[in-house]
């Protein structure tokens, strides 16, 4: 396992080698007295070729951070880059193109179009873009996630774990610069979840893929190279080469802090 | 109680999804209510007009029943002698008796040689000006007409023709042509029924309209000492009542009401028929809406069941929602309907028939009919979705999937649909074997009903095959977006089938009518080519008979080898003690050169010989008559005479061919010249090689008579084509309502699908589908659904039309012509409808926030 070089978490003026970067990002809902800050001056840099987990309790802003990094949501202030492209202020059309060409998504549930087969779902982003999938790469991906026998199945003929693996394959298939996972194992039992996480790990190790995953599960987070902890819209800590026990300890620490403060 | 509450909450929560269903109900109910209010208002308007204009006792021409101012076929109105006024005034209880001279057998022509009167159905009426006119007219402007050179016109005619005081008007009638100067203009105080009215002084009116003296009617007012009934009886006793009727004000009004009522009833039934078609189409929309609502709410309903709601409660809660929809939609529809009626009245105003909103007649039956109809339709439509909702088990609350598709039910449905469709097709085919119109009509009706129901039931089963085929042709060029659209259209065959069925109904009617229309045109054209030998056909443009002057002008035109008139003479015929009414075409001897009449028996020339007639084969069959038989004939206005059957005509498709013929000479033998009816058409053959010269001569001879139209064969065909085309356009216009409701159905299905697929759309957008691509996907889906509906509609319409043509064939119209142009328009139109229907749903889908979409439960 490679040891990832850790950037300073401020991210400001960080090297352009980062896969994605947030600089002083604030996301506010509402206005005036009722304003709620989902993200408060968050700066973070996502390293290429690494598996990054974003953790935090419910309402900590971890999903919002991911959505902002992925260009799904707009920010109130601050800047976001994907690769060398600043996406804050990018037009809807260009954002769509960026998502299509440079980003892969894995959601918690409902990842697949029910009318398309597994194979069609996997190649959908490339079909939409009008590009031809690289068949060799596609075979590699399909073999990696172990789906070769099920390509002609419709989503409702697949188990939950298989569906998530199809989603992983789809995310990998177009070789995006970065893959975002929003609780990708949240709906799976522990065995199926472990399978999916292993594939994600493997795609980082073997294929050099960059992955950012939001989770609240310490076991899932332990698969990452690095964990960024969020609480109340701010980055409160981070951990390199985590294990489930270390993560659990750290989480308990937050809880205790939360109670005393 | 709780059920009511849940239904109400659900209805309000989903009111956006109910909008289009509500609109469909409202539109159809509006059309029903609008029709009822409009016809009732027309009726009120005319009732008032007659009641206001009539005196206590009215003396009217005619023997019985002929209430409207119908022009006699001779064009000459029978006049009572002038002494009748004095006789009536002498009756005890009579205060005034006003003699009226009135005729509709005139044509008024302005100085620019244009007809002054309406060119449509309403007549031009000549009347003597008396004070009774002030009951319906304002005080005249200018001077009253005095002497033979003066005339007064009504204000509406003055406006439409641009004529005023000082202008010259030529009046053509059965008694020749006269010229008059306009001295005054008089406005209608009440509703103008659409006629053009010209006034003379009494003596001039008698000269111009009657060619003599006397009166066509008398307005009698009493001094109030006796009732109208008593006055009527006294007047009737005092005068010679042959050829006239003496009526009280009430009787006169009632008679006119009855005559008009029958006419309005026909209009009303026709309009209601189209409204019901729209209502039927609306059912599909409502079924789709409720089916989708129930499907979307499966988990919710499951939870409801899990916490103890019974099937009945669930079922009823859905029906209750439908009831709310029905009530809201129908009440709205009623209000819209009244608005529609007011709008229609305004439209009639543009055509010269001014209706006042003061007369707006809304009986309580109107809202009741409309609302009961709207609610019934909504409940019927919601019945099956409600039953499905009741069948949802508590387990559904725990499962993720929606309602599982019931494959077995689908197969049963497809089988029933296929069986019905095949049975219907068989019935339609049987029309080819029928030998009588009634039998063929029966097969056709049954065939239409069976194929309609069958196709509606069968449509979902056809979705797979036809949509895939359409996709191969149309969607594949759009690549993956096309494929997504195809899959979406295929996803729920019941929904796609239902949506397309709604469109199918309207388009099937359009197509079948187009088949009938084009077949009629083709048959008529072929028949004209085959049987008409005349070079020219001369008719009036306003469906009035040809005045003697005009007929004379045609006869005197140069370069004509032969001219034949056609006059319609009705007769009382007695054969073997059996009496029947028969109308004959009275023609000149040259007529066989003008039209080749197909004979079933005997020769046409023999039938036109003096003392002979030709009758139709149908009549010959029923009365058991053969060539050589003698019959007793009394032509209208003539004496009884005995004639021989010289020939029996075969049924033919010539639009001008009549079954029974007699020569003018034979008619003249028993009917005095003054009693002869006017010609309704003339035909002429030009001298050899002189067609152009003859045309020129005819045109110049008829130039001062703008009401006359000369047509050669090509123009004649064109006219028939135009007439049929106009009729078809009118029906298409009425079918537009049903098609609009069907379009709402497509919009509804797409809009609800977009809501249903919120998460999918969010997902696709997240992984890179652009707004444009998303909108295109929805548009393509809409186009495919619409084209699917068009395909079913055209196929069914062709079958219906072919069946209907078989009935025409029995009437002699044997050519089956396919309306390729209309079919092309239907398909292109359907594609456009799809694009139009997708407009709003696609826009809304494009505007969806990706994050909301992805996180929607």
TrEMBL record, chain B:
Residues 23-235, 497-699 form the MacB-like periplasmic core domain. Residues 274-394, 734-850 form the ABC3 transporter permease C-terminal domain. It is a multi-pass membrane protein. It holds the Pfam family FtsX. The chain crosses the membrane at residues 269-295, 320-353, 365-386, 414-434, 446-479, 500-522, 730-755, 780-800, 820-840. It is found in: Cell membrane. It comes from the Bacteria. This is FtsX-like permease family protein.
């Amino acid at each position: 396992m490679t040891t990832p070089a850790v950037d300073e978490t401020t991210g400001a003026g960080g090297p352009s080698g980062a896969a994605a970067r947030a600089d002083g990002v604030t996301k506010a809902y509402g206005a005036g007295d009722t304003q709620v800050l989902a993200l408060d001056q968050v700066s973070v840099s996502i390293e290429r070729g690494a598996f990054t987990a974003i953790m935090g309790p419910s309402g900590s802003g971890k999903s919002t951070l991911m959505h902002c990094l992925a260009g799904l949501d707009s920010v109130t202030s601050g800047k976001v880059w994907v690769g060398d492209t600043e996406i804050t202020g990018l037009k809807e059309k260009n954002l769509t193109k960026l998502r299509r060409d440079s980003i892969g998504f894995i959601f918690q549930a409902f990842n697949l179009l029910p009318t398309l087969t597994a194979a069609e779902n996997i190649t959908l982003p490339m079909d939409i873009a009008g590009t031809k999938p690289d068949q060799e790469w596609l075979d590699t991906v399909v073999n990696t996630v172990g789906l070769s026998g099920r390509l002609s199945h419709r989503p409702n003929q697949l188990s939950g774990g298989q569906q998530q693996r199809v989603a992983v394959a789809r995310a990998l298939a177009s070789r995006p610069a970065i893959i975002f996972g929003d609780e990708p194992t949240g709906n799976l039992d522990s065995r199926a979840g472990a399978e999916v996480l292993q594939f994600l790990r493997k795609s980082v190790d073997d294929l050099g893929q960059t992955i950012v995953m939001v989770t609240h599960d310490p076991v899932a987070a332990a698969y990452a190279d690095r964990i960024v902890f969020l609480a109340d819209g701010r980055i409160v800590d981070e951990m390199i080469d985590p294990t489930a026990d270390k993560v659990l300890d750290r989480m308990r620490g937050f809880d205790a802090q939360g109670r005393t403060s | 109680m709780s059920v009511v509450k849940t239904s109400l909450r659900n209805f309000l929560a989903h009111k956006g999804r109910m909008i289009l269903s509500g609109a469909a109900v409202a539109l159809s109910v509006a059309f029903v209510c609008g029709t009822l209010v409009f016809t009732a208002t027309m009726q009120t308007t005319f009732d008032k007009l007659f009641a206001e204009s009539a005196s206590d006792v009215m003396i009217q021409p005619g023997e019985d029943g002929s209430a409207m101012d119908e022009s006699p076929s001779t064009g000459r109105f029978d006049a009572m002698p002038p002494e009748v006024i004095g006789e009536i005034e002498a009756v005890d209880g009579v205060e005034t008796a006003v003699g009226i001279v009135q005729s509709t057998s005139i044509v008024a022509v302005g100085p620019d040689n244009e007809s002054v009167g309406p060119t449509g159905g309403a007549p031009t009426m000549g009347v003597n000006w008396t004070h009774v006119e002030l009951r319906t007219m304002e005080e005249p402007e200018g001077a009253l007409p005095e002497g033979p050179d003066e005339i007064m016109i009504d204000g509406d005619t003055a406006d439409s023709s641009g004529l005023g005081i000082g202008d010259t008007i030529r009046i053509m009638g059965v008694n020749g042509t006269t010229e008059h100067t306009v001295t005054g203009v008089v406005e209608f105080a009440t509703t103008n029924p659409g006629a053009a009215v010209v006034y003379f002084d009494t003596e001039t009116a008698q000269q111009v309209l009657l060619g003599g003296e006397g009166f066509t009617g008398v307005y009698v007012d009493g001094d109030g000492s006796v009732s109208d009934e008593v006055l009527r009886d006294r007047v009737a006793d005092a005068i010679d009542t042959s050829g006239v009727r003496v009526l009280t004000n009430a009787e006169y009004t009632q008679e006119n009401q009855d005559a008009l009522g029958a006419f309005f009833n026909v209009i009303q039934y026709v309009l209601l028929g189209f409204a019901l078609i729209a209502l039927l189409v609306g059912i599909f929309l409502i079924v789709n809406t409720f089916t989708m609502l129930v499907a979307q709410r499966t988990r919710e309903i499951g939870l409801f069941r899990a916490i103890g709601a019974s099937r009945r409660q669930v079922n009823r809660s859905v029906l209750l929602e439908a009831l709310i929809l029905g009530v809201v939609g129908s009440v709205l529809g009623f209000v819209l309907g009244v608005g529609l009626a007011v709008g229609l009245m305004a439209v009639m105003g543009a055509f010269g028939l001014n209706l006042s909103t003061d007369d707006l007649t809304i009986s309580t039956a109107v809202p009741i009919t409309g609302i009961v109809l709207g609610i019934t339709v909504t409940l019927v439509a919601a019945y099956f979705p409600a039953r499905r909702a009741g069948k949802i088990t508590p387990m559904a609350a725990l499962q993720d999937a929606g309602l599982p598709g019931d494959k077995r039910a689908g197969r049963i449905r497809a089988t029933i649909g296929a069986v019905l469709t095949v049975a219907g097709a068989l019935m339609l085919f049987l029309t080819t074997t029928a030998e009588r119109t009634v039998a063929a009509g029966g097969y056709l009706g049954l065939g239409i009903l069976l194929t309609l129901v069958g196709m509606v039931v069968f449509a979902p089963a056809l979705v797979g095959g036809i949509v895939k085929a359409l996709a191969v042709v149309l969607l594949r060029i759009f690549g993956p977006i096309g494929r997504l659209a195809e899959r979406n259209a295929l996803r729920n065959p019941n929904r796609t089938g239902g949506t397309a069925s709604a469109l199918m109904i309207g388009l099937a009617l359009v197509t079948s009518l187009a088949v009938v229309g084009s077949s009629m045109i083709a048959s008529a054209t072929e028949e004209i080519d085959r049987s008409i030998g005349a070079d020219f056909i001369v008719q009036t443009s306003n469906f009035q008979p040809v005045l003697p002057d005009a007929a004379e002008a045609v006869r005197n035109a140069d370069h004509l080898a032969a001219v034949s008139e056609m006059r319609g003479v009705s007769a009382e015929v007695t054969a073997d003690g059996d009496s029947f009414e028969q109308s004959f075409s009275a023609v000149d001897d040259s007529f066989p050169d003008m039209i080749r009449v197909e004979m079933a028996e005997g020769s046409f020339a023999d039938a036109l010989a003096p003392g002979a007639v030709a009758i139709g084969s149908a009549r010959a069959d029923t009365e058991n008559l053969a060539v050589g038989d003698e019959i007793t004939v009394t032509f209208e206005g003539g004496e009884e005479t005995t004639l021989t059957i010289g020939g029996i005509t075969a049924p033919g498709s010539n639009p001008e061919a009549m079954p029974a013929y007699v020569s003018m000479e034979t008619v003249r033998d028993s009917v005095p010249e003054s009693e002869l009816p006017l010609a309704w058409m003339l035909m002429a053959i030009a001298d050899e090689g002189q067609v152009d010269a003859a045309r020129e001569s005819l045109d110049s001879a008829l130039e001062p008579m703008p009401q006359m139209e000369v047509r050669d064969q090509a123009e004649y065909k064109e006219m028939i084509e135009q007439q049929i085309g106009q009729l078809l356009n009118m029906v298409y216009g009425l079918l537009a309502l049903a098609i609009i409701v069907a379009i709402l159905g497509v919009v509804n299905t797409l809009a609800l699908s977009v809501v249903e697929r919120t998460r999918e759309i969010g997902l696709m957008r997240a992984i890179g589908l652009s707004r444009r691509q998303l909108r295109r996907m929805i548009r393509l889906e809409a186009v495919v659904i619409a084209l699917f509906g068009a395909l079913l509609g055209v196929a069914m319409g062709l079958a219906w039309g072919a069946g209907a043509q078989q009935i025409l064939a029995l009437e002699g119209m044997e050519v089956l012509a396919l309306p390729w142009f209309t079919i092309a328009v239907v398909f292109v139109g359907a594609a456009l409808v799809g694009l139009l229907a997708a407009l709003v749903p696609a826009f809304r889908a494009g505007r969806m926030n990706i994050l909301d979409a992805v996180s929607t439960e």
